[in-house]
């Protein structure tokens, strides 16, 4: 049986983990697999550029990275001298002052990955499933046009058994030999050189004076790049090997010998080698980065290059960072799937620029292209300095798209806030507590857009007036903040306005700030005062001169729209309301807002916890056969504890985690007694599936009192009572899920099923009322409440022919219905599911003119269906008998 997931990530390298971390931060789960047996233990990459450290800081996980890593402060350039030795030619700062508030650091990739793994787990319990080999990935291109379709099929193998997943989206993060890329038929285009390099992590014994600095040595004996590692003793050496060397023939002794020759006349010995490898330089790009806007390649699966410039892990991680927030926005209904097309626009250009840079950098560093021995280091040092912004990860500029509006922008208003580039940080002082801080810390990676308003000095009337007008627009019903934020959510939950003022040391009061910049938010509706900053001298940290740094004239001001990934989308005049509104309407279409509102209304805009089978107990009524049995067997197979209540014994082989209780659901006393036992013996159920149903199939005059009584008791009263039994435990923990199974007969009742249709209509009303009580009476927004409205399903309830159009209204299979129920349980969100999906629109018949309703209902007379179920009633007691 195929498993459905919203996002399937193939590979747990830096790209896959960063994308999964974004999804987890936004409250979304995914399936991320890796062929390894466990997390990476020894990583090949180690350089963490400034931009990557900024990304970690935006997730709130930079502290450990900075504490454990080696900080690269200075780079020394060495070359051969006229005496046959080597000498230092120059020193430069590794990162030019002012480029970033974060340093360039060195930390093993395995540890970098672990920080992301820990963050995923903290955010929503997300984990990686190891031991999965991805064998094939296919996309149903026809179905891809439907945004709700699970049109990506991923075939995997684990422990010798195939397992198929169906996903809405998939990411190929599985490295240079990507199975995803090969499955899609994409090719790597490019070349490799004859230059062979060795890399080793060693504990050196040497008198070389710069062994704890990053060094580039270009000598007659060859080229060597030295990068100190974390811990104080470990050092990485990238060593150029002689022309004609074959990578597979290289031994670690070759690397030791090459380093010894290049470092001569300094002593060099190796106490221990931690890791080593040899490779030939190659630069290649995939000919396509995505398939049908559903499968996306990231990292080494779509671009490969040499490792010496320290770009590989970083660019890969930022591929995942780019696609991660966009997938979250689409899945949450905040943006159209067209947003995902910007991944190609942005990251294909980054990859192409990377390959071009790598060719230049690798060629310049190779002594074979150096010319005179004494001139090489000087030439390379110039290239290194000029490339400083690039190697720091701060040179990428995204092109025009729906979320990067260069043509709509007025760049002169903020000359260093370059549209398409990441938002640089300057020191400001927070108004509410006078704390000096970096403005970038007000832009964390939490999925929100920011409108950063540089309003100037609001002590001046003109500045105060224009700020008031802008804030009135933003908070109006036609402004983007309210237009795209549901009324039940905090006003800043999707678009957060940030205010940066100039001047006014000690003279600006909070009451002068428009309310949209200090809104009531959170559970207690406490005002958030942390959105207003002033550009003036702090008590202890000096003056950040932010307006000067950003190139903004305080008299004119500016507005910058900043994406969830801190890239600048647009810079406009503070009075240009139309551009601001048009920007958000450009990618937040009404349909997608509607989808988001549907999700929010059903789930009280609260995020689901990650499903943990060890902490959940699922109770299913009518689980001995039919739909219930299919749900039970699937849940039990996947390690979940399942309680079954049914008057009939199980019709399938049980297992240790299936607990069966015989219960006549038409008997209130039995329900109460059995549920007391369930709680005492197993704990309180966290998921209740009201699945049991009964149909007698008699007309109003033909059916007996017993027929009508049992139909209402089992179909309506039993779900009501079961919910009463389970609800207190769910409300107490603000965690749980109640799933009710209804029928299309609630909307289009056929003749001969009046009692059944009425009971199912009652189920719909019960479901809707329960949702309101959970939210407003019990204040339990995280207790979910789902409804399944089913058309004809192949269960023991009926037999015969429906005579309906099999294409538009196919006869449902038990397993298909069970799949939807189990998927809803796992996702942890409330849903209203019509099966087939077209029935959602048929349900609108209730609002149609009477004559239209009569025509549609008359069609039910053509059905050739026997609705008499298999239940047997004791004629004396009127009670159900156990099914034969």
Can you describe what's shown?
- The structure is a single chain.
- By secondary structure, the chain is of the alpha/beta class.
- It folds into three domains: 3-57 and 105-190 and 283-354, FAD/NAD(P)-binding domain (3-Layer(bba) Sandwich), CATH 3.50.50; 411-588, Glutaredoxin (3-Layer(aba) Sandwich), CATH 3.40.30.20; 617-639 and 649-879, Rossmann fold, CATH 3.40.50.720.
- The strands form eight sheets. Strands 1, 2, 8, 9, 10, 11, 17 and 18 form an eight-stranded mixed beta sheet that branches. Strands 6-5-13-14-15-12-16-19 form an eight-stranded mixed beta sheet, sandwiched between helices. Strands 21-20-26-23-22-27-28 form a seven-stranded mixed beta sheet, with helices on one face.
- Strand 5 (74-80) and strand 6 form a beta hairpin.
- Helix 1 packs parallel to helix 4 (109-124) and helix 18 (705-733) runs parallel beside helix 19 (754-777).
- Residues 368-377 and 805-809 have low confidence and may be disordered.
């Amino acid at each position: 049986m195929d498993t459905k997931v919203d996002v399937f990530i193939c590979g747990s390298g830096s790209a896959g983990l960063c994308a999964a971390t974004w999804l987890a931060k936004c409250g979304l789960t995914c399936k991320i697999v890796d062929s390894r047996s466990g997390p990476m233990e020894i990583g090949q990459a180690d350089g963490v550029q400034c931009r990557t450290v900024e990304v970690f800081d935006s997730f709130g996980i930079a502290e450990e990275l900075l504490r454990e890593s080696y900080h690269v402060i200075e780079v020394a350039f060495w070359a051969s001298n006229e005496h046959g030795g080597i000498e230092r030619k120059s020193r430069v700062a590794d990162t030019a002052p002012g480029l970033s508030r974060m340093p360039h650091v060195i930390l093993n990739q395995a540890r970098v990955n672990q920080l992301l793994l820990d963050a995923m787990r903290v955010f929503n319990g997300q984990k990686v499933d190891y031991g999965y080999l991805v064998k094939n990935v296919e996309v149903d291109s026809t179905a891809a046009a439907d945004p709700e379709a699970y049109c990506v099929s991923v075939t995997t193998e684990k422990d010798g058994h195939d397992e198929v997943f169906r996903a809405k989206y998939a990411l190929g993060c599985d490295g240079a030999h990507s199975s995803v890329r090969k499955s899609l038929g994409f090719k790597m285009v490019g070349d490799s050189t004859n230059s062979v390099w060795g890399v080793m992590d060693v504990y050196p014994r040497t008198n070389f004076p710069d062994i704890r600095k990053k060094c580039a040595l270009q000598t007659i004996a060859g080229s060597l790049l030295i990068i100190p590692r974390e811990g104080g003793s470990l050092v990485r050496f990238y060593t150029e090997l002689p022309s004609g060397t074959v990578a597979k023939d290289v031994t670690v002794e070759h690397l030791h010998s090459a380093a010894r020759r290049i470092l001569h006349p300094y002593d060099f010995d190796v106490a221990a080698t931690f890791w080593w490898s040899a490779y030939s330089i190659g630069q290649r790009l995939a000919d396509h980065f995505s398939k049908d806007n559903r499968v996306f390649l990231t990292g080494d699966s779509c671009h490969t290059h040499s490792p010496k410039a320290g770009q590989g892990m970083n660019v890969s991680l930022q591929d995942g960072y780019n696609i991660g927030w966009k997938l979250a926005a689409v899945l949450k209904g905040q943006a159209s799937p067209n947003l995902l097309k910007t991944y190609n626009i942005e990251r294909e250009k980054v990859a192409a620029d990377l390959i071009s840079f790598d060719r230049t950098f690798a060629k310049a560093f190779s002594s074979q292209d150096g010319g005179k021995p004494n001139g090489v280091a000087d030439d390379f040092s110039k290239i290194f300095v000029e490339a400083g912004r690039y190697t720091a990860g701060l040179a990428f500029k995204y092109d025009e798209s729906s979320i990067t509006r260069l043509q709509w922008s007025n760049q002169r208003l903020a000359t260093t806030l370059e549209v398409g580039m990441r938002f640089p940080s300057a020191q400001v002082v927070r108004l509410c507590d006078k704390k000096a801080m970096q403005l970038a810390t007000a832009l964390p990676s939490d999925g929100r857009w920011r409108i950063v308003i540089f309003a100037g000095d609001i002590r001046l009337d003109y500045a105060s007036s224009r700020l008031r007008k802008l804030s009135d627009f933003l908070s109006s019903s036609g402004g983007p903040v309210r237009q795209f934020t549901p009324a039940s959510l905090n006003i800043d939950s999707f678009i957060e306005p940030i205010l940066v003022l100039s001047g006014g040391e000690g003279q600006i009061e909070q009451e002068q700030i428009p309310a949209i910049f200090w809104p009531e938010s959170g559970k207690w509706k406490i005002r958030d005062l942390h959105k207003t900053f002033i550009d003036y001298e702090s008590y202890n940290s000096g003056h950040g001169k932010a307006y000067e740094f950003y190139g903004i004239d305080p008299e004119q001001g500016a507005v910058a729209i900043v994406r969830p990934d801190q890239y600048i989308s647009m810079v406009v005049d503070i009075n240009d309301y139309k551009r601001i509104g048009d920007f958000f309407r450009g990618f937040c279409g009404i349909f997608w807002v509607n989808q988001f509102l549907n999700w929010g209304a059903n789930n009280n805009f609260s995020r689901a916890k990650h499903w943990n089978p060890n902490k959940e107990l699922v109770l299913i009524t009518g689980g001995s056969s039919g739909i219930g049995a299919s749900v039970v067997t699937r849940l039990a197979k996947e390690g979940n504890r399942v309680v079954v209540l049914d008057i009939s014994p199980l019709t399938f082989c049980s297992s240790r985690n299936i607990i069966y209780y015989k219960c006549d659901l038409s008997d209130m006393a039995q329900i109460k007694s059995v549920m007391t036992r369930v709680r005492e013996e197993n704990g309180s159920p966290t998921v209740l599936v009201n699945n049991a149903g009964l149909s007698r199939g008699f007309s109003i005059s033909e059916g007996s009192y017993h027929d009508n009584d049992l139909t209402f008791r089992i179909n309506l009263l039993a779900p009501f009572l079961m919910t009463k039994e389970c609800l207190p435990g769910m409300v107490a923990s603000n965690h749980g899920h109640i799933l009710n199974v209804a029928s299309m007969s609630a909307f289009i009742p056929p003749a001969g099923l009046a009692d059944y249709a009425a009971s199912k209509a009652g189920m719909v009303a019960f479901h809707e009322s329960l949702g309101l009580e959970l939210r407003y009476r019990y204040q339990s927004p995280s207790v979910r409440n789902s409804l399944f409205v089913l058309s004809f399903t192949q269960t023991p309830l009926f037999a015969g022919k429906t005579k309906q159009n099999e294409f538009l209204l196919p006869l449902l299979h038990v397993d298909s219905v069970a799949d939807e129920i189990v998927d809803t349980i796992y996702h942890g969100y409330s849903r209203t599911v019509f099966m087939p999906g077209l029935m959602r629109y048929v349900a609108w018949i209730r609002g149609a003119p009477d004559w239209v309703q009569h025509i549609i209902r008359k069609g039910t007379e053509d059905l050739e269906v026997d609705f008499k179920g298999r239940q047997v009633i004791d004629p004396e007691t009127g009670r159900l008998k156990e099914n034969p």
